[in-house]
Amino acid sequence: MKQFRLPIAMLHHVSNREEWRSLRPFVISEATFMRFLDAIERAQMQPVTFKSMQETEKTQDHSKIIISFDDCGKHLLNFAVPELIRRNFSAVFYIPTANIGGFNTWNVEQGRSKVPLMDESEIIQLQRLGMEVGGHSHDHVRLGSLNDKEVLQQLQSCQSTLTRILGQPATYFAYPYGSIPSNAKALLETNGFHDTCAIFSPRQERHMQRRFIVHDGDSPLTMRAKLTGLYRWYRSLTDPRKPESSWQ
């Protein structure tokens, strides 16, 4: 299977709720989200899914981008998803399976805002709308801090839950906190996950693909810059120089 060289955007929550300010920079306003989609359109790029790219012959396409959402906040179905559909855009959504139909316990434990997450019927709805659904571990934990047995349990529980809900195995995965376990490739492939997203990573490989964050501090200019090959080249230089804690 192919490894892609595409820009991959990482988003979490899209909302104007003042009570969610504690989640910044992982919550952006609706206006910021619209500016980002506008930047994609001005760059004449088309958001795609991992599956659609696997079905093409290309491993690099400057006209394509992958938009990803971590955690699957229920509120995304009210604004972000309809706006994606209106523009004929696809996206990938990652869910921690123990929290399906629940809330973001990992944030609340840190004193941050509580956000309801999608339930099983809403995840199925995403799939029917042409969106891609992937795993985000079972308990939204730092996989890089676990031993192989514990990582395996997280991946197995995540995959079995998603397979039951989606009617087929999920092959896409994103590390919570961008935390990459030491034997990531073997453990992921054993559980059927092939295209996997990190945040920062020492190397650009299928099991640790870099993403960039979109935040309220982004201007149209910085958004456009993050879509370019030059920015990915910059990340290829700076990510390996970051301390090991950046990806564990």
Describe the fold and architecture.
The chain is an alpha/beta fold and 248 residues long. It has a single domain, classed as TIM Barrel, CATH 3.20.20. 33% of the residues lie in helices and 13% in strands. The chain is built from nine helices and ten strands. The strands form three sheets. Strands 1, 4, 5, 6, 7 and 10 form a six-stranded parallel sheet that branches. Strands 2-3 form a two-stranded parallel sheet. Strand 4, helix 2 and strand 5 form a beta-alpha-beta unit. 40% of the residues are buried.
Give me a quick take on this structure:
This protein has helices at 30-42, 50-54, 80-86, 105-108, 120-128, 148-166, 184-190, 220-226, 229-238; strands at residues 8-11, 13-14, 27-28, 46-47, 64-70, 92-95, 132-135, 172-174, 195-197, 212-213. The protein is α/β, with parallel strands linked by helices and 248 residues long.
Topology overview:
Blueprint: E1 8-11, E2 13-14, E3 27-28, H1 30-42, E4 46-47, H2 50-54, E5 64-70, H3 80-86, E6 92-95, H4 105-108, H5 120-128, E7 132-135, H6 148-166, E8 172-174, H7 184-190, E9 195-197, E10 212-213, H8 220-226, H9 229-238
Q: Compute the separation of the termini in Å.
A: 26 Å
**Helical segment tally?**
9
* Uncertain runs: none
Query: How many beta-strand segments?
Result: 10
The CATH superfamily turns out to be Glycoside hydrolase/deacetylase
Specify the structural class: alpha/beta
What number of domains?
1
In N-to-C order, the SSE pattern is EEEHEHEHEHHEHEHEEHH
What number is the mean pLDDT? 90
Main sheet? Answer: 6 strands, parallel
CATH architecture: Alpha-Beta Barrel
Helix content: 25-40%
* Proportion of residues in β-strands: 5-15%
* C-alpha-based Rg, rounded: 17 Å
CATH topology call? TIM Barrel
Which geometry do the CA atoms define? globular
What CATH first level would be assigned? Alpha Beta
